């Protein structure tokens, strides 16, 4: 089974592209979703986080108060490292399980929607990389308009990620999402066709 990484900066349109890829019949493993699953009520990572960062990061309904955890975990490098130490191995384990399940069921291709694909060096491990590319200015506009972020917060988040040049350099395929959303479907169709012609006979 070939694993194709899908990445792009915050607000670039990864989720929108992932949706089109699923519609084209290729399964998508969503890294953000897995990161949420492993801290659901009852999961060991949630208990460990509470032990480390304080029981009051858990709400009355037993679910993680994400903003509370973020406020504590991003205070220092050490605290962020502790968060990563608790969550990353579990995220990796579940991701591996998902890939294994898909491979067992005979899927020839899987797309891995992974925002930090390049930051974490995974672009060297996958079989191809799809980058959703949008100028930083446009991403700020969309994050403000559709996500309700302040302009400053959007700019800060973008600045914390790797630059667009580095991302583009790691790309096997670039999907240009600077234009209308309707322009995505034909580009995704073309990438999917290329993936299939490369690996499916
Ligand atoms: P995140 O990194 O925050 O998870 P993402 O990369 O998954 O974001 P999306 O959620 O797909 O990005 O897109 C961000 C927002 O921009 C969404 O509200 C989406 O509907 C909108 N959007 C995506 N593409 C376009 C486009 N070409 N024109 C206008 N809006 C768009």
Helices and strands, with pairings:
Blueprint: E1 2-8, H1 14-23, E2 28-30, H2 31-37, H3 44-53, H4 66-73, H5 77-104, E3 109-113, E4 128-133, H6 136-147, H7 151-159, H8 164-169, E5 173-176, H9 184-199
Parallel strand pairs: 1-3, 1-4, 2-3, 4-5
Helix pairs in contact: 3-5, 6-7
The structure holds adenosine-5'-triphosphate (ATP).
Keywords: ATP-binding, Coenzyme A biosynthesis, Cytoplasm, Kinase, Nucleotide-binding, Transferase
InterPro entries: Depp_CoAkinase, P-loop_NTPase
GO biological process, one term: coenzyme A biosynthetic process
Give the CA-CA distance, first to last residue.
13 Å
Shape: globular
- Helicity range: 40-55%
Q: Counting H and I runs of at least 4 residues, what is the number of helices? A: 9
Q: β content, as a range?
A: 5-15%
Secondary-structure element string: EHEHHHHEEHHHEH
Number of E strands: 5
Can you give a write-up of this model?
The protein is of the alpha/beta class and 201 residues long. The chain folds into 2 domains: 1-27 and 109-193, Rossmann fold; 39-106. It is built from 9 helices and 5 strands. It has helices at residues 14-23, 31-37, 44-53, 66-73, 77-104, 136-147, 151-159, 164-169, 184-199, and strands spanning 2-8, 28-30, 109-113, 128-133, 173-176. The chain is globular and about 50 Å long. The model has no long low-confidence stretch (mean pLDDT 96). Residues 8, 10-16, 115, 142, 146, 177, 180-181 line the site of adenosine-5'-triphosphate (ATP). Its main location: cytoplasm.
């Amino acid at each position: 089974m070939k694993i194709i990484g899908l990445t792009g900066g915050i607000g670039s349109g990864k989720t929108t592209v992932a949706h089109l890829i699923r519609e084209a019949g290729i399964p998508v493993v969503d890294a953000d979703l897995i990161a949420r699953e492993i801290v659901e009520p009852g999961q060991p990572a949630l208990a460990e986080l509470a032990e480390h960062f304080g029981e009051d990061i858990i709400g009355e309904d037993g679910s993680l108060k994400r903003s509370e955890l973020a406020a504590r975990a991003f205070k220092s490098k050490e605290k962020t490292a502790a968060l990563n130490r608790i969550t990353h191995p579990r995220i990796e384990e579940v991701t591996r399980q998902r890939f294994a399940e898909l491979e067992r069921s005979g899927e020839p291709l899987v797309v891995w929607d992974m925002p930090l694909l390049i930051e974490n060096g995974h672009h060297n491990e996958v079989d191809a990389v799809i980058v959703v590319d949008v100028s930083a200015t446009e991403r700020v506009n969309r994050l403000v308009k559709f996500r309700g972020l302040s302009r400053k917060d959007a700019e800060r988040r973008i600045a914390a990620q790797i630059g667009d040049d580095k991302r583009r350099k790691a790309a096997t395929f670039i999907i240009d999402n600077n234009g209308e959303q309707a322009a995505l479907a034909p580009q995704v169709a073309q990438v999917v066709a290329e993936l299939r012609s490369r690996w499916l006979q």
